[in-house]
Amino acid sequence: MTDQHEEDAALEAAILELLAKRAVGATICPSDAARAVRPEGWRELMEPARLAARRLVADGTVTITQGGNPIDPTTIHGPIRIRLNP
């Protein structure tokens, strides 16, 4: 496993761990996962965190939202939130 694969897996795990600690239906920002994985230099992980969220959407684990509404992850522009699927 390469460092990139490890970081991708860590971001996916961070998303799921953070959401598990929230109330049902609550959301997180991709930056929350980036900060959990790399507290220093987390901004560099913003796009990888968004990609991790997209992978979790593809496997049916989470939904990406904007303005509280689910969106197609292929059309993301601007800030997003991530919510665990019921």
Walk me through the structure:
By secondary structure, this protein is α+β, with helices and mostly antiparallel strands. The chain has one domain (3-84): Winged helix-like DNA-binding domain superfamily/Winged helix DNA-binding domain (Arc Repressor Mutant, subunit A, Orthogonal Bundle). The chain is 45% helix and 15% strand. The chain is built from three helices and four strands; from the N terminus they run αβααβββ. The protein has helices at 3-20, 30-37, 46-58; strands spanning 27-28, 62-66, 69-70, 81-84. The chain has a four-stranded antiparallel sheet with strand order 1-4-2-3. β2 and β3 form a beta hairpin. α1 packs across α2 (30-37). The longest helix is centred in the first third of the chain and has 18 residues, at 3-20. The chain is globular and about 30 Å long. 21% of the residues are buried. The model has no long low-confidence stretch (mean pLDDT 95). It holds the Pfam family DUF3253. It comes from Glaciihabitans arcticus.
